Amino acid sequence: MQIPVQVKVYGQTVLSNALIDSGAEGKFIDSKFVAKHRIPIRKLVKPIPVHNVDGTPNQNGTITHYTLRPLLFGNKLTLAFLLVTSLGKEDIILGLPWLKQRNPIINWKEGTISIRRTTTATSLAQRTTKTSKPLKDLIPANYHNFIHLFEKKAAERFPIERPYDHAIDLKPDFIPRDCKLYSMTPQEEVALNEFLTENLRKGYIRPSKSPMASPFFFVDKKDGTLRPCQDYRALNEGTIKNAYPLPLIGDLMDKLRNAKYFTKLDLRSGYNNIRIKDGDQHKAAFKTTRGLFEPTVMFFGLCNSPATFQMFMNDIFR
C-alpha cells in the first residue's frame, strides 16, 4: 500500500509517496530521491549490511548513511529516522518497525491509512482515574513522614554548585556550527511554549546569544504526549569524552543474588539536579521557533552526561 507523504527539507515541502511494507525490517529513503532534493544526511557510526530474503548479501552493499526527516501524513507530523539506500521505483519505504511504533488504522477497502493518536477525552479520563484519591490515601500511614520528599515543587529547586558540574570540553579543532530550524505543528507550538515557560521559570534554561546551536524538536511518547528533544550529535562529535567509569551490569546483577524483595529509587528529573559548568552553557544552546536558548542544568543527549551523573551518585552514596 502506498500513501501520500510530505517530506520537510529546509522548511520546504517535497511531495512523495511512501510504501507501507510489513516485510521490511526498517525505514528507508531512496538515495536518488535524497540527491535530487538535496536532503542532508549523516554517516552511521556502524554500517548496516543488507541481505536478500534468502540471506545472501544484497548487491547494493551496506547502508552507511541516514537522515532524520519530519514527515507529514495528512495533518499528522512525525520525525522519522530513515536509512539511505537504493529503493528502485520507491522513494520511501516504511517497514514493520514503523507499523509497530505508529500502529496505524488501515482501511484495506478504501486504501487509506490513519495515524493513531490518544484523544483528549482518553487523556482526561486517565488523569481523572489517577488523581481520584488523595496522595495520603495511597501511601501506608507509616510512610506519611516521608511524603514531602516526593513533592514535585521540592524537586524544582535550582541545584547548588559542585566540583563535578557538567563540563563540555571541546576538541582543539572543533568548529562551532549553526543548525537548521525545524518547523512545528500547532500542537507542537503549544508544547514548546509550555516547555520554555516552565524551564525559564525554574531557571533551567535562559535566552542565549551563542554562535553555535543544536536542533530542537518533539517526538511522540506512547501516551500520546510530546517529548522535547535536543539533537546534540554534532556537539558530541566535537566533545572530549569523559572516561569516568560506569557500573558494570554484571556486578550490579551479582549484588541481587539471593534477594527476595526488590525496590527502586527514581530520582525526579535526575539530570536537572546537576549544573552545567559556568562558561559552558552556550555550547549546549538549542534553536527553537521562539528563539535561541541555553541550558543551565544538565539535559539528556550530551555525551558525557552519564559520566557526570555517576560522579553525582558516587558522591551521594559514598
Total strand segments: 14
State the CATH class of the largest domain.
Alpha Beta
Which secondary-structure class do the elements indicate? alpha+beta
Beta fraction of the residues? 25-35%
How do the strands of the widest beta sheet line up side by side? 1-2-7-3-6-5
Total number of distinct structural domains: 2
CATH architecture annotation name of the largest domain: Roll
Unreliable segments of 5+ consecutive residues: 118-131
Helix % is 10-25%
The name of the CATH superfamily of the largest domain reads HIV Type 1 Reverse Transcriptase, subunit A, domain 1
- What is the average per-residue confidence, as pLDDT, rounded to a whole number? 83
Terminal Cα span: 58 Å
Rg, Cα atoms, Å? 23 Å
For the sheet with most strands, the description reads:
6 strands, mixed, barrel
Shape: globular
Give the SSE order as H and E letters. EEEHEEEEHEEHHHHEEEHHEEH
| CATH overall fold name of the largest domain | HIV Type 1 Reverse Transcriptase, Chain A, domain 1
Helical stretch count?
9
Organism: Phellinidium pouzarii
Protein name: Reverse transcriptase domain-containing protein
Pfam family, one: RVP_2
